[in-house]
Amino acid sequence: MNRNTLALLAVQASSLLTSTHALCETECTTKDPAANFTIQYTGRCTPGTFTSEITNTATHDCLVCLYNVDKGMALTSIGDVVQSLCEEAYAADVFPYTEIARKGAQFDNEYFSGGGEWNYEVQTASGEDVLAYDALRVDDVYYYEAQRKVIELPEHIESFNPHTGNMINGIEDLDGCDLNAAYCCFAQDRQAGDNNGNCATPYEYNCVDKDPADNTNICYVDHARSGKSSHVDSGFSIFGDLKTGKENIEGPVHCHGLTWPDDPLHQDNVYKGNLLFYVSMYDHMTQRGYVRNIPGSPMCACAENMAVVTRADCTQVEVDEKTAFNWNVAESTLEAAIYVDDIDFNACDGLNANNNLQERARKLESLGLLATEKVTALGESLVGSQAGKCNAAIETFLGTKNITRIP
Is the same domain home to 206 and 258? Predict the structure, then answer.
């Protein structure tokens, strides 16, 4: 590249910067667009938080103008500008789910289906297959990643992106978790000494097919909902006794999940991958030793692909963040940057009960954060703990297969 070309490029760049500054001179009365600047505050990166922390409307106008110059857009609302910048910022530094185990996609698929070494192996007297050692990387990710940055929801895992085409209350299973909810159901305890479940030492005698703490009843499994993870395309399994009315006939099972609003910037939406990691791998597997799936169902999946049960516990996040909006004059770019101080994982705040997945979804619905049709559809997977609910769901399901009880 010769000197004439370099000079021409320099002139063009100077002209571009001059035009950028000239375009926003009227709007930028509180900030100088000819120099780098940063606007920052303590709080989440959302339009509501931004406008409550940065109240100067002239600053709003300046950012809108600079954003439009940078992106070639014509937005007029500071809320729309912040929404776009924050979505880009959260997506810019995402921790891949494949980096948690670092054992490959097949391992991840098997784990969430309920198989693989983390699910099947039980500690031996000679000290082999110790969960705390074999899955030690989960602890590392919890302390260094899950509380500091966004973890992706794993679309490479078949139970979280199965595309079955099945319909649940008019909502088709098309793309990931269409009901904005996911849960795990654990059928076995493989770790002693953690005050959870009934696995005990010595492992060879007191931890063979042991049970987690029971918090739900299984109603049925529609195998067509999860064929990609269970490798069973059709059929069903029933876990109730319609003749006698008994419902809790399957033994202890523990279910726990998460749900999130439609708003892509709500903390439970942004950090839904963190929640899944916490529920599935950290809190239940490494801390409690809960593993294995209900036969015919994934261990963990989108709600529409899971076994139909009465209820599930629930976790939500509380996040401490700092947010900055940076104007770079040399590159003519306006970007948001998010600094996560801490992420806490807490029992869900529900509408009529806490630590309850369906009640959390109802709470979000009551706040206008989750569509009613999704909450209603979720109620077909979490049917309620009242006596008779499970068998009623079984009977309704069997009716779709043209199976009815003889009077």
Answer: yes
**Residue 229: inside a domain, yes or no?**
yes
* Amino acid sitting at position 307: A
Which pLDDT band, with edges at 50, 70 and 90, does 359 fall under? very high
Q: For the chain, what is the domain count?
A: 2
Q: Looking at the whole model, is its pTM more than 0.85?
A: yes
Determine the Cα–Cα distance for residues 91 and 303; give it in Å rounded to an integer.
Answer: 24
**pLDDT value at position 165?**
63
Which region, left, alpha or beta, applies to residue 234 given φ > 0 means left and ψ of -120 to 50 means alpha?
beta
In the chain, the amino acid numbered 356 is: N
Provide the residue range defining the domain that includes 279. Answer: 96-312+356-400
- How does pLDDT run across 325-350, given as a tens digit for each residue? 999 999 999 999 999 999 999 999 99
Residue 23 covered by a domain: no
| Half-sphere CA count of 332, side-chain side, radius 13 A | 18
The candidate with the shortest Cα–Cα distance to 296, out of 174, 185, 212, is: 185
Hey, what's the torsion of the CAs at 129, 130, 134, 138, to 10 degrees?
Answer: 150
**In contact, 295 and 221? CB cutoff 8 Å:** yes
Angle between helices 3-24 and 57-71 (to 10 degrees): 140
Q: Please say whether the beta carbons of 249 and 243 come within 8 A.
A: no
The position carrying tokens 């004059």 is 329
Tokens standing for 86?
Answer: 């924050």
The length of the chain in residues reads 407
278, 160: one domain: yes
Domain for residue 271, yes or no? yes
pLDDT of 252: 95
**Same domain for 62 and 121?**
no
My answer on whether 151 and 286 are in the same domain is yes
3-class secondary-structure state, position 290: strand
Burial class of residue 234, CB neighbours in 10 A (0-12, 13-18, 19+): exposed
CB 226 within 8 Å of CB 301: yes
Q: Would residue 345 count as lying in a domain?
A: no
HSE of 92, CA atoms in CB hemisphere, 13 A: 11
* Token digits of residue 404: 């009815």
Q: Are residues 133 and 200 in the same domain?
A: yes
